[in-house]
Amino acid sequence: MRSFLASPRSVGAVLPTSRRAVRDTLALAPPANARCVVELGAGTGVYTREILAQLRPGAHLLAFEIDPRLASALAAELGEPRLTVVNDSAVELHCHLDGASADLIVSALPFTSLPGELRDRILRGAREALSPEGTMLVLQYSPFVERALRRTFATVERKISPINLPPAFLFACHGVAAGAEPAGR
Question: Exposed, middle or buried: residue 58 (CB in 10 Å: 0-12, 13-18, 19+)?
């Protein structure tokens, strides 16, 4: 709540996402199949905990959180060797992968409230960080980001998690959309 009040445009919701919506999202591309998972907007760790519960031994989770207090608290609380909490913007994803690619990217960033240029840079960077068979999962509280997702990714699947308050829109994104811009632009 404190983070939302301090910066409502960069915090996705007043309340954490429900466990049901988290499970519904991860069911679209289970972390158990991934070697490298990236989480954008780790917040209080609602997704982080469930990803770690499903992540196989030897796999790695890179969790980005721009709020230094939330990042520090999450790293201290979980203390998990498969987890690296990164206190940096999702725009800098490529700087923290050390040349690797992600099999799965999970995002609850508030794309509809971010400035359009920033949203597009994050989405292009995430798409380029994915392995060819990789998936980006996106949770939003409105469907308005879907157009930007379709400009960025070749395929976008949409589901709704109605049990969450408010209902959550879940997207599974794959591949490069025809005519999509590279991340550097």
Answer: exposed
We find that the CATH architecture of domain 2-174 is: 3-Layer(aba) Sandwich (3.40)
User: In the structure encoding, which two tokens stand for residue 132, read together?
Assistant: 């060819």
Note the pLDDT tens digit of each residue in 144-172.
999 999 999 999 999 999 888 889 999 99
Q: How far apart are CA 152 and CA 47, in angstroms?
A: 23
Name residue, tokens 């794309």: 111
The pTM (predicted TM-score) of the whole model is: 0.89
Buried b (16+ CB within 10 A) or exposed e, 118-141: bbbbbbbbbbbbbeeebbbbbbbb
